[in-house]
Fold each of these.
Amino acid sequence: MELFNSMDIFLKTFWYIAIPTSVIFLIQTVMTFIGMGSSDGIDADFDGDFEGEDTPFQLFSFRNLINFLLGFSWTGISFYQLIENKILLTLLGVVIGCLFIYLFFLVIRALMKLTEDNSFKINEIINKTAEVYLTIPPHKSGKGKITLSVKGSFRELEAMTDGDKISSNSIVKIVGIENTVAIVEKV
């Protein structure tokens, strides 16, 4: 306690911010990992039009305030002995605090990609184009194969046509689905 009392008021301020902010950050982190940290716990009613924005990242949130103060205060403490100019030290703290918010945004964005539904639904391929991989016999007399990209991954599917034979490397349009077999026509 004597060491704390002998500190410069500027350094004490950084410590006054860093200690509670670090405790709150640890609590938020634990709550996030046990599934209780999905919101800030604030139920505010604001009127605005965000054009369908559906994102968990909000610039002005309690979590971002904690992230900013964490970066700001620990930067001030860490560089207090190295940077004598208090204005420069404060500006560096602000920059690092903003960097903490940006890093949190990147982490949230990466986590949201993990929750995306990238499951393949065959009905979603109707009206898409594909390339014939194995020749498709005429008039639904047999099955060929097509390849197409769906949500960033390549799929190989069985295909039939009502028309004439479609040879390999031809481009086709998927016009329907029958029992998981794509019905195609030449483009």
Amino acid sequence: MASIFSKLLTGRNASLLFATMGTSVLTTGYLLNRQKVCAEVREQPRLFPPSADYPDLRKHNNCMAECLTPAIYAKLRNKVTPNGYTLDQCIQTGVDNPGHPFIKTVGMVAGDEESYEVFADLFDPVIKLRHNGYDPRVMKHTTDLDASKDHFLFDKPV
């Protein structure tokens, strides 16, 4: 009995066996766990009206406080990303930290990848304000990976 297993698990047979098992496991996992890539938005009903939950941002110095309006808050407050992230969790850091008048921070975080789509009415103006007019819905960031075009201070001949 031991000779059968020792023959299977030696040399080329073992690598073929493990490759076949690994491929079958990966294929099975892919077929059983196919998920949609786009963000599905869930609604989470609240007990209080939006005006009661809207944070007081009058003395805050961050991009989120500048862009968040009661209308945007009322529109987005019930939305939840597929991973369970809410608008209140996004803006919590900006509410807790009012900032300094001379150092303007963003004041919000994206909890997951879908936050940029689900809360786009708030994220897009914040990105535009923070990055000097860059509009993520219209503009496309150029990427040039050609290393011959990179010239740094120490690359120049003396």
Amino acid sequence: MRMRRSYTVFAVSALLAATGLARADCTSGGITFTSQSDIDTANCTFVNGDVVISAAASGNITFNNLNRINGSLIVQGCGDATCSRIVGISSTNLTAVEGRLQISSVPSLGSINLPGLRRVNQDLILHDLPELTKVNLGGIKRVGSLKLSSALKLTKATIGSRGYSFDPNVGLKNITGNLTGSADAVVEVRDVGLRDMDGILDFWSARRLVIENLPNLDVQMIKVLNLDEMRVVGNNNLTLRFWEANLNEPNTPGPMINRLLISGVRSLSPCLQPVVHEFYAFNNSAMEYLYFNFDQLNHIEIRDNPRLKKIVSWASLNRFWRDIYIHDNPILSLKRFPGPREPGDNVSEVYCNDLSKIHRDQWAWFPNTFDNLVIDADIDNTFFNETFTNLWLNTSSPSETKPKVVDRFEVRSTNSTFDCSALDILRTQKGAFPGRYSCQGQTLPAGIGAPSLEGSMRMALGAAFMAAILLY
């Protein structure tokens, strides 16, 4: 009897000790859980380290009592359904992950339900989840970066707040990697079945935004603030729309994109006017009509678009243009006025019918000083002559108010009627093209006005540089 009582006391003491040890582990360092029973036994509300869900776990993994992780939350995967049988991850009370949240290569995972999660200070990575159909991160407000990839069954996700709100406390408004140094401030969405990215795109600033190979994404409004680079590889049926700042309402922000690269895109909506400094359109195999309406644009490069027929800039001010490269678009026709629209040329009527009625499809050359202008297409004589050459040959205004190309002017037209004579005069007599020059493959020496033009510009730049040094 005494031995049985001693054994009972020992067993209870051992159980209490084990429980106390498990609970102590919550604050003494990271924990690896291999099953739901491990999580229930530990009963952590706070973990002072990483939380790892082992690939050996199975079923629905729930940790509702856990509020904060002072480290990373990692769900291990192995890419093999025989060794990874987790089907769901959920927590109603988890609000913060101070490290990264990474769920990768879990082939059986169908749902991620973390509606109370407010911040992930480093990367939020969801990758290689072929059975994933549900994501609820509706409360997320701040991440170091967001990387969502290889989840083609995920057609709709709740990430942040859907709709439009300029309140900085509503929705995913902060991509903080470049501010904290803890992660790279990027948003990348690749090979995912999403039909829209509402909630993910929500007036934040980041270094890079990548949207690549989303087969179900046909129309998307781009709602961001400052981006160094935005790269889109569409499904060849994608129309991109852009938010713009409302000058009459200071609290309505608009995009400022340093470099925009698009491929696999069918069309851009020109209805709104974001700030874009460099625009590249490559390998858009379904694009026939390209309308763009970018403020402060200075670099344009449009090439290798096999079905592109027409390019029109709706921008009311293109005085920032410096470099234009348009080539290897085999059926592109360039005219001052492109003429009546074809039946399929209707993107502006669909998205901004009122604006389309007041905008005339035209290409106008303003008195810019360009660095490079390289164009190879079916160029009509009106494309240059009605504005570019006309400003030189038929107006008495000073040369400073006329368009010039300083470094490189090369034009080749497949139109048999294209005439270089007016451009040649600008080269040989007016000093409009002091640098490299070629029209229909023919080069001519620069005229007498060219050295003084180039010299005056270089002197002005030198004077500005010296003034800056003195002021500094």
